[in-house]
Each structure stands twice: as structure tokens, then as C-alpha cells.
């Protein structure tokens, strides 16, 4: 399950850019040929974001073309 590694990398990239500020949302673009199981990615997301500034951050996935896998944006702010 490479989705665990992908989740860890997403958290690392977002933390590098957001610092210690809380993150409320991360938006990904994933294409059908990217070989990513979105349900597995969502499951792993919940695990790897615990005890981090991304704890509780919503993972939003939008459809993209071909083999696209891209962090489109993230939102800073208070997490409910």
C-alpha cells in the first residue's frame, strides 16, 4: 500500500510550507492513471495527520487527467 507513503509525503510537503500553523484543508488532484486508491489514501491520511498541525484537516480530492498527482492547495486556519 503506497498510499501510506504518499500520505506521509503530503504531510511533509504541507508542513514544510505551512510551518506550525494549523491546516484545515488539503486539496489534491488525482488522475485515473495515477494508481492511487483514494479510499486507502483517505484512511492513511487520518493516521499520519494525528499529532500534527494537520490533525483534523479535510482531505479534498478532485479528478484530474491521466497520471496526475498534485497538491493543488492547502488552507490555513483553525480546525474544528
From TrEMBL:
Coiled coil: none
A GO MF label: zinc ion binding
Superkingdom as given in the UniProt entry: Bacteria
A biological process from GO: protein maturation
Sorted UniProt keywords: Metal-binding, Nickel, Zinc
Protein name: Hydrogenase nickel incorporation protein HypA
Native source species: Pseudaestuariivita atlantica
Lineage start: Bacteria, Pseudomonadati, Pseudomonadota, Alphaproteobacteria, Rhodobacterales
Amino acid at each position: 500500500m503506497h498510499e501510506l507513503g504518499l500520505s506521509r509525503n503530503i504531510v511533509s510537503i504541507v508542513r514544510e510550507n505551512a510551518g506550525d500553523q494549523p491546516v484545515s484543508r488539503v486539496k489534491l488532484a488525482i488522475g485515473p492513471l495515477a494508481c492511487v486508491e483514494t479510499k486507502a489514501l483517505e484512511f492513511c491520511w487520518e493516521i499520519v495527520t494525528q499529532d500534527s498541525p494537520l490533525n483534523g484537516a479535510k482531505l479534498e480530492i478532485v479528478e484530474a487527467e491521466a497520471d496526475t498527482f498534485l497538491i493543488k492547495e492547502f488552507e490555513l486556519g483553525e480546525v474544528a
